[in-house]
Amino acid sequence: MASENVLKENLHESASRLHALLAGRQPEVGIILGSGLGPLAERVEDAVVVPFASIPHMKRSTATSHKGQFVCGMLAGKCVLVMQGRLHGYEGYTPQEVAFPVWIMHELGVGTLITTNAAGAINESYSVGDFCIMSDHINFTGRNPVEGQDPDGIAFRFFSMKDAYDPALRALAHRVADENGISVQEGVYLGLLGPSFETPAEIRMFGAWGADTVAMSVVEEVIAARHVGMRVLGISLCSNMACGVKGASPSDEEVFEVAKRREPDFYRLVTEIVRGM
User: Fold this and answer.
1) pTM score, two decimals?
2) Domain-embedded: residue 123
3) Which of 106, 107, 125, 268 could make an S-S bridge to 15, C-beta 3.0–4.6 Å?
4) Strand, helix or coil for residue 112
5) Residue 64: pLDDT above 80?
6) Which range among 121-135, 165-179, 244-258 shows the weakest confidence by mean pLDDT?
7) Is 38 within 8 Å of 263 (Cβ atoms)?
8) Which of 91, 96, 89, 87 shows the shortest CA–CA distance to 6?
9) What is the pLDDT of residues 240-255, one digit of tens each?
């Protein structure tokens, strides 16, 4: 007889497999590392590494620098489950496939998600190398991971996205940044499908809508996290000015160069946020 909810059954099977491979670890904080930000996972202590390919129904990451593995261990005194690399719609994956690892985290008991990425700065008051705490987002992917009938079997499909980025976690991030002498911005993030960078005309439009940063990830993960009641903190590294802003023409190489330069501050920022939770 055909399953009534394939997504729910697949999620249970995947979470059970990952739980077994984590050998008793009980993560409480999930962290998703974006382009160029993967080295933070190497700072996790007493780590267990599980490739995405080891988990049934999980897709593999094909994006540059995304190793495509879970890293579980201790960071700042807490057990964390880190995605060293993420899944993107532009890799050909459906919204639910992109969201699937977030739902796995929730199934394992993770209540708080920190999602990070490299983004283009639309706001001309920002500079390359700035960190930006996400206050809200605009989903311009044209997709939603909770569409269809199966997600309703995980949690009720109609839910509020007010304060999708938890105000208390944002305040904590600002406090940590101040205490560590790390300059941060706060603004609205716009996510779109990619993989091509945006045109100058699109950037002008996004800015008129109120977007401060732009990239090709995060929004579907956050929708999935809020769907199941997880608290969310979003942090972007402004790795470039968005196309046309101050004459910018983004490149993949620029993203990784800036991420490498800001790696020490990124590690300190995320680690101390986790410590303060």
Assistant:
1) 0.95
2) yes
3) 107
4) strand
5) no
6) 244-258
7) no
8) 96
9) 999 999 988 877 778 8
Give the residue-averaged pLDDT of 59-82.
92
pLDDT in tens, 92-103: 999 999 999 999
Show the DSSP H helices in 22-166 as ranges: 95-107
**Exposed / middle / buried, residue 152 (Cβ in 10 Å: 0-12, 13-18, 19+):** middle
- The owner of tokens 């996400």 is 134
pLDDT at 62 over 90: no
The per-residue DSSP string of 153-205 comes to GTS-S----TT-S-HHHHHHHHHHHHHTT--EEEEEEEE---SSPPPHHHHHH
Domain-located, residue 42: yes
DSSP 215-260: ESSSHHHHHHHHHTT-EEEEEEEEEEEPTTGGG----HHHHHHHHH
Cβ(236)–Cβ(191) below 8 Å: no
pLDDT the model gives residue 87: 94
- 256 falls within a domain: yes
**Domain membership flag for residue 1:** no
CATH number for the domain spanning 212: value is 3.40.50.1580
Domain that holds residue 75: 6-276
Instruction: Give me 164's structure tokens.
Output: 């999708």
Q: Token digits for 233?
A: 């903190």
Task: Identify the pLDDT of residue 253.
Answer: 79
Measuring CA to CA, which residue among 236, 240, 161, 162 is closest to residue 203? Answer: 240
Cα separation, 188 vs 167, whole angstroms: 14
* Span 168-177, pLDDT tens digits: 999 999 999 9
- How many Cβ atoms sit within 10 Å of the Cβ of residue 245? 19
- Beta partners for 211? none
Split into its structural domains, the chain has a count of: 1
Chain position carrying tokens 């579907």: 220
